[in-house]
Amino acid sequence: MKIETPKIPTELPSKNFHDILYEEDLELEMCQIQHSIFNDEVLNKVRLSKMVLKNCKFINTDFSGIEMTDVAFENCDFSNAKMNISSIHKCTFRNCKLLGVDFTDSRFGNVQFMDSLLNLAAFGSSKLEKVQFQDSSIESSDYYDCIFKKVEFKACMMDGANFERTSLNGVDISTSTFQSLVVSPTDLRGCKVSTYQAIQFSALLGLEIID
């Protein structure tokens, strides 16, 4: 699967995330932000575009309705942030902490999560198209009633993830690991799994395998 990466200029002026508080339209673009701390804030309907954020902290921050296009995050901490009802396109999250983030009712397109922590993250009722989770932990994360189109989970730890009412048809989880998943047999149809995972699912379905 080919994913469009963020189109970001190579030379960007530096800003602090608090600069957005002084913007009339709550918009930041064409800049780089490093070591900014923006915790426990409420800032709805922010727009970010063509920018890089590194080593920033947004813990417990309410970003409901955020719109992001062509944005790269690296070593950022979004623990327990609210990013529901959001639009996230052509963005990368590398080595980021997204523990317990609320992404419900959001739209993702051409997004990559790499070497990141997404345990307990909530994606319920979201649409994910061309989204890749790679070398990341998504344990006990929630994908209830989502729409997946060209979604991959590569070498992820996904124990306890919830896929109820979400079709995994065409989704490849064969390189990922888990003890159990919350998923219905009908939603597993067409899911790409390894031989070992097939045996795991057979046990979950109550089948007795005889050599």
From TrEMBL:
Pfam families: Pentapeptide, Pentapeptide_4. InterPro entries: 5peptide_repeat, PA_immunity-related. This is Pentapeptide repeat-containing protein.
